[in-house]
């Protein structure tokens, strides 16, 4: 699952700028579909892993996931404020922080010999 998340984040780092820089509607739509497919597991996989790590503490898990989702809920406000100041096109580049954060914050898979 970590390999999948890393691979899709890397591909999103290519597909998202392609979406932003695409000159025509067809290319933007194709990039949008690709981005939707790429980030499909970005929530479910880490949350499944989170619940597995905190097995037996479902209340704690729910509370922590609610607190951590605050950043995601505030992102439209941030993008709106940036769009007001710099324009929507410029503000959309902030969304590249999602795949970058995923790549930086996901723990690396340990080799079978390390276990």
How would you characterize this protein structure?
The chain contains six helices and no strands. It has 115 residues and is mostly helical. Helix 1 runs antiparallel to helix 2 and helix 1 runs antiparallel to helix 6.
Please count the helical segments.
Answer: 6
Number of strands: 0
Order of helices and strands: HHHHHH
Query: Major sheet: size, sense and barrel closure?
Result: none
- What fraction of residues sit in β-strands? under 5%
Distance between the termini: 17 Å
In terms of quaternary structure, what is this? single chain
Radius of gyration: 17 Å
The helix fraction, in percent, is over 70%
Spatial shape: globular
> Which segments are poorly predicted (pLDDT under 50) over 5 or more consecutive residues?
none
Query: Average pLDDT value?
Result: 85
- Structural class given helices, strands, pairing? mainly alpha
Relevant terms:
single chain; 115 residues; mainly alpha; 6 helices; globular
Give a quick summary of the entry.
With 115 residues, this protein is mainly α. It has helices at 2-21, 25-38, 44-53, 58-86, 88-92, 97-105.
Q: Helix and strand layout, with pairings?
A:
Layout: H1 2-21, H2 25-38, H3 44-53, H4 58-86, H5 88-92, H6 97-105
Helix pairs in contact: 1-2, 1-6
């Amino acid at each position: 699952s970590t390999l999948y998340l890393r691979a899709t984040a890397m591909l999103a780092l290519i597909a998202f700028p392609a979406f932003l820089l695409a000159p025509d509607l067809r290319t933007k739509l194709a990039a949008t579909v690709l981005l939707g497919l790429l980030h499909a597991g970005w929530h479910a996989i880490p949350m499944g892993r989170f619940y597995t790590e905190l097995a037996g503490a479902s209340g704690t898990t729910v509370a922590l996931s609610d607190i951590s989702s605050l950043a995601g809920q505030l992102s439209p406000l941030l993008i709106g404020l940036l769009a007001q100041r710099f324009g929507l096109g410029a503000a959309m580049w902030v969304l590249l922080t999602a795949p970058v954060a995923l790549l930086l914050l996901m723990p690396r898979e340990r080799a079978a010999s390390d276990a």
